[in-house]
Every structure is written in C-alpha cells, then in structure tokens.
Amino acid sequence: xxxxxxxxxxxxxxxxxxxxxxxxxxxxxxxxxxxxxxxxxxxxxxxxxxxxxxxxxxxxxxxxxxxxxxxxxxxxxxxxxxxxxxxxxxxxxxxxxxxxxxxxxxxxxxxxxxxxxxxxxxxxxxxxxxxxxxxxxxxxxxxxxxxxxxxxxxxxxxxxxxxxxxxxxxxxxxxxxxxxxxxxxxxxxxxxxxxxxxxxxxxxxxxxxxxxxxxxxxxxxxxxxxxxxxxxxxxxxxxxxxxxxxxxxxxxxxxxxxxxxxxxxxxxxxxxxxxxx
Amino acid sequence: xxxxxxxxxxxxxxxxxxxxxxxxxxxxxxxxxxxxxxxxxxxxxxxxxxxxxxxxxxxxxxxxxxxxxxxxxxxxxxxxxxxxxxxxxxxxxxxxxxxxxxxxxxxxxxxxxxxxxxxxxxxxxxxxxxxxxxxxxxxxxxxxxxxxxxxxxxxxxxxxxxxxxxxxxxxxxxxxxxxxxxxxxxxxxxxxxxxxxxxxxxxxxxxxxxxxxxxxxxxxxxxxxxxxxxxxxxxxxxxxxxxxxxxxxxxxxxxxxxxxxxxxxxxxxxxxxxxxxxxxxxxxxxxxxxxxxxxxxxxxxxxxxxxxxxxxxxxxxxxxxxxxxxxxxxxxxxxxxxxxxxxxxxxxxxxxxxxxxxx
Lengths: 277, 359
Fold this sequence. Notes:
Number of helices of chain A: 11
CATH topology of the largest domain in chain A: MetI-like fold
Mean pLDDT of chain A: 82
Distance between the termini of chain A: 42 Å
Strand order of the largest sheet of chain A: 1-2
Number of strands of chain B: 20
Structural class of chain B: alpha+beta
Number of strands of chain A: 2
Largest sheet of chain B: 6 strands, mixed
Number of domains of chain A: 2
Order of helices and strands of chain B: EEEHEEEHHHEHEHEEHHEEEEEHEEEEE
Strand order of the largest sheet of chain B: 6-7-8-3-9-10
CATH superfamily of the largest domain in chain B: P-loop containing nucleotide triphosphate hydrolases
Structural class of chain A: mainly alpha
CATH superfamily of the largest domain in chain A: MetI-like
Low-confidence stretches of chain A: 270-277
CATH architecture of the largest domain in chain B: 3-Layer(aba) Sandwich
Oligomer: heterodimer
Strand content of chain A: under 5%
Strand content of chain B: 35-45%
C-alpha cells in the first residue's frame, strides 16, 4: 500500500515534469505572442492582444520595428519544402532501393553513402560558404532554385539513409515470391516492396519536409537577401521584436505538429499491418 | 508436369565455391530432395533453378527448354520459401490471386481456382484472413497454395517445414506427400533433415561442400551409401575406419582390418583389397550377447566393449560403447539395464554392416 502511494507520487511528479518540459517553452511562446506590454516586475503581461498576430498575418499594417507580413514567407517556405520533398523522394527511393537490395560492390556502396553524407560530415558554415562562392559564379545565389538545391543537399542525406534502411528491413523473399508467381522486377517493387515500406518512406518524406521548413544556414548564405523563408524572418525578428518572433516560431511549429500526428498515425498503421509477419 | 535437368552447375560467391559441377535430372511427377548440411550448396542450387541466382557455369533445362538465363517471372516455377514469405499487407485471397491477376485470369475464374486450391490445403474459407492471423502451419499451407495456384509444372521447396514444431512437421510431411501425389507435380525439395528426405522423396541427391555426392532412391542411399559422409548423414551411425583385408568367401562380403587391429565383416561388393574404408554401424544393428552358448554359434563379428554412456529414453536406452579406438552408439530395448563401466559382448550381423569408402 505504502509502496504504491510512493510510486504514484513519483509517477505524478514525473508526469508534471514531462508536461512542464514539453509545454512550458510552448506556453512561453504563446504568452509572448499576445503580450502587448510586459515588463519587470510583472509576472504576466499587463496588456494582452492579438495585434502582433494580425500584423504578422498581414491583416493590419504596422510600424513596429521588425514587423513584416510573414504570409508570403510562409507560402514560400511551404512551396520550397514541397518541391524539395518531391525531388528528394524521387531520388532517394531508387537510390535507397539500390543500396539496400541490389548487389553493389561494398566499396561502391560505401562510396555512395559517403558521397551523400559528406555535406553533413563537415561544419555547415564553411560548406555553405563554399557553395555560395560556387553558386555566385553561375548566378544561383539569391534565387529560389539555389535555395531548393541547398535544401536538397541537406534533405537527401537523411532521405537516402532512411529509405535504404526501410527497404533493407523488408525480407528479400517477399519480392522473390512475387517474381516466382510471375511479377516483373518493377511490378514486384510497386505491389510488394513499396506498399510495405510506405510507413518508412512517409516518415522519411516528413523528415525532409520539416528539415526544409526549418533550414537556416544554407538559406542564409544562398538565399538572402532575395529569398526570405520563414526561418529568415524569424531570425530578423528575433533581434528586435520578441513578440513578433514568437508568432513566427509558432507558425513554424504548426506543420511540425501536424506531421507529428501524421507520422504517429502511419507508425500505428505499420504496427497493425503486422510488418513483423 | 515437367522434367528438370541441371547440367554441370557452378556458382561462386567471391572465393566461396557454393556449387561445383552439380548435375542431376528430376523425373516428371516425382519428388527429388536436395539433402545436405548447411552450406552444402542445396539452397544455392535451388535459387539457380528458380532464377534468383545466375550460375557462373552450367545449364538448366525445363522440359528441354534452356532456362538458365531467363528471369524468374518467365520460368513458371512455383516456389515455397522457408519463412513462407507471404505478403503481410494482403489477405489470403490477395496472396493467392496475385499470380493469377498478372496472368490476366478473369475474376470469376480466380475465385474458383482459389477455392479449389484452398480446399486442397484444407483451409476452406480462409480467403479474408491476413497472414498474421494464422498459425505457422496454416501460413505454410497458404505458401504452398500460392506456389500451386497458377499451376506451374514444377515446384521448388526450400526447407518448407523447418520452422514448424516437430509434431506438426511430421504431419505436414504426409500432407505434402498426399498433395504431391494428387497433383502429380514435379517437386525439388531442399532439406537438411534426413528423416524428412527419406519420407517424402522418390530420389535424394546428397550434397556436401558444393558437390553432388550421391543420387539415389531413399533405400539406395540408406543401404548403399557411397562414402562415410553419406552413411553418417543419412542416419545416426558409428564408424570404424580401416582397410579391406580380404574378400570373404560369401558373396558381397568383405573383411576389414581396422586401424587398431580389429577384424570385422560387412557388406559391399565392389571393393578391392587394400582400399581405405569405413565400417558403418547403425544404431539398431548392435546385438548384446549374454548367453555364452550364442557366441559359439556365431563365428565372426563378436566384440568386447565397455559401456561409457547410458541415456534412458523411455522405450529405449541409448548406449555408447567403447571398443578399441572406436565408440559405437546403439539403441536397445530397456531390458539389458547396463551401467556405465560394465563390460559387454555384442554381435554385429555382417549382412547389416555397411562397408563404405572412407572418402
């Protein structure tokens, strides 16, 4: 009895701490985003309102320092992210499949993986600075295309890695069984391997999407000042206007949270689907 | 139904010679087992026939058509995998219909054929189940049904029963025999279980280290093993190594001098004096002698030994007897009740003792 009370107490404390660490930063962002006037020694804002939200969403015009309409930036980020996901997955699915399933000599396999990993193996700033100098020569800096290319470099690493391990987790006999009953290699892939690896592929796509939405360093070097994605606006706002930065931060969180729910749904489907046989 | 011919098959994986110069022919409508220890090349041979591996050398013919280099989907060979390889995202119906849909069989015909094949494997009404909702034995049957439903001329089975528990495995052997007989399909059956091979096969090909050692009916393999390896692999056997001392007056008998100087008579009709041989003693060919009178009646193959291990197995007792440099294992009725350390005399009837090549 005593023990169970003790245990319950510990559990409750752990739960509260969990909630605190998870939601406290979010809560703080939420409060900041609606705080019109808030200074020491007040525990809570003195004046609350959605003025910064309206300004950020372009509903009202404002003269506040650092306030810009972030709606175009949001759509730009979203658009770039979608294009990056499509291109990345078109490359990563065949590449991951080849790495996982085809008989490629080991040294070649290593070479390919290293090639994909290289951009991430070094500190990011020098890599992107170098890239910027190269892009400068061919006129890609300050263009959306240039930013997409940079996001691809970042996204491909994860995507190839995750898709390869997803394909590797599918027993080769499943595809062989399909071929023995008359399916071509292509048909076996589309009817057997692809549906079975869908959860992993979707997870990988979501990861690439979020990486692109969030990408800062590469966009900073290649995109600015002409391509202003959401993280860029957050960066410029955070220096001058914390309320405004909070609004952007929350906007950035929305797709992540939506996708988190999506991933969870697919991972559950995978579980129900009896991937383990 | 089809005839399969494998001619001088070779397959290397890097430096490993997985299959070396393997040739055999599978008779129409019969079961041929590829039997051997793990790593003997039996699965690689099977995968070459299925088309999942490209042989480095050699040809494979199906009904006199060369299939060595055509892709697996065009070979029309049914295959049953060790881990069943049922598609987890499809129902039984989906699993069975897949091959038929590719062949553009009309829908009503598909349902009809699936019904028929399910009744053959005694799983009527299982169409809507997913593989995960079935037991191992049921999954095994569906795997077999999937390999049969598109009516291939030949069926390959890669250790299909090895994932089942012992009792079910034995039952499934008989079910497989029944099914094969009913369909008259040619089957190539890979296994490492000699009992399974003896029960289900019309012919057995023994493989070791990538080479084909002996091809024969179960009876031939059991009673006329080509060498020590085959004799030891097909059944629990004790060996005494030596040289052929002389040919006995009786037909088909040879007298062997073992390396430690024992003399033993056994069966074999094509050996010559001086050849290195192994005397194979099966566990059920050792007769203990307690009555001294009996010894006088039998002039040969009486040995003295010492019990060094005794295991009680319920209906029988398993003894290990040390004789000279050799250890002989035997299963006998419980009545003897020997203890470890007991001196025993036993008789090995020459007509039941197999003399075979050492290598």
